[in-house]
Amino acid sequence: MSAVSDRRLLLVHAHPDDESSQSPATMARYLSEGAQVTLVTCTLGELGEILVPDWAHFTPAELGQHRLGEVSVAMGAVGVTDHVFLGGVGRYHDSGMVRDDEGRVLAPASLPANAFWSADLLEASDQLVEVIRDRRPQVLITYDPHGNYGHPDHIQAHRVAMYATLLAASPSHRPDLGEPWQISRVLWNSHNTELWTQGYAIAKERGIDLWPDIEGEPEPGRFGPDPARIVAVVETSPWLDVCRAALDAHRSQVDPADPFWQFYRIVQELPGAGEAYQLGFGIPFPDTGSLADDVFAGLGV
């Protein structure tokens, strides 16, 4: 590991495993460069789909406790030691999700009493304000306004992260939570659209059928945002083994034999593969004529 730097990165994810499917290379890279990396997880993922038959008997509470162990192993693989659950372990419950007849993700009609989706926005944001003011990150990473694919907890994590970013900077808001801190840049993690499109074509050639219920080609936008909106990509290849070790730790949620995860591995191996980001708020990246490869570029740290 290089000498400790002044760079500080905060990531806000909804459930255990989200960080390992969307941000592991980013976390590993900046840890290797001596940056402070803080992961905030908003729920225990109590309503995740259990993929291991031997664990099918788990109640939501038991699954949440099991996933605590999974994320601990995953973050051990990445090297993250500063891991916080929003409001404390178990403060907010996984809201779950359902799909409508067209496959769109929605919040269930019936929610747990302390579901993250129904959390008071100000209360939840203040839990994050305290973390922001204590860690003082220059860059925060979370989801886009749609939660990337519509999961209610991802959408709520986006709302909490964006609101907390504004509140944390206000000298008038909750001085008891610490000195004000202005985050310089908020990034929304994103699928790397062009590479996902390439990966889909390769998967089809190999006989991997991602969406057997869809006739013809997937509609535009299924693989991610307009590529013009992607402003930065953190390369995966130097950290591929770390990324896979982290994701494999989430055995209750990730089945390597599943067509989607086979496709995901194909995308990770493509030339130029990386974790893509949109600019959600704050200081733009320097205009160099190409995508930034450093989430701190132009911030002077």
Automatic annotation (TrEMBL):
<dbReference type="GO" id="GO:0010125">
    <property type="term" value="P:mycothiol biosynthetic process"/>
</dbReference>
<dbReference type="GO" id="GO:0046872">
    <property type="term" value="F:metal ion binding"/>
</dbReference>
<protein>
    <recommendedName>
        <fullName>N-acetyl-1-D-myo-inositol-2-amino-2-deoxy-alpha-D-glucopyranoside deacetylase</fullName>
        <ecNumber>3.5.1.103</ecNumber>
    </recommendedName>
</protein>
<dbReference type="InterPro" id="IPR017810">
    <property type="entry name" value="Mycothiol_biosynthesis_MshB"/>
</dbReference>
<dbReference type="InterPro" id="IPR003737">
    <property type="entry name" value="GlcNAc_PI_deacetylase-related"/>
</dbReference>
<dbReference type="GO" id="GO:0035595">
    <property type="term" value="F:N-acetylglucosaminylinositol deacetylase activity"/>
</dbReference>
<keyword id="KW-0862">Zinc</keyword>
<dbReference type="Pfam" id="PF02585">
    <property type="entry name" value="PIG-L"/>
</dbReference>
<dbReference type="InterPro" id="IPR024078">
    <property type="entry name" value="LmbE-like_dom_sf"/>
</dbReference>
<keyword id="KW-0378">Hydrolase</keyword>
<keyword id="KW-0479">Metal-binding</keyword>
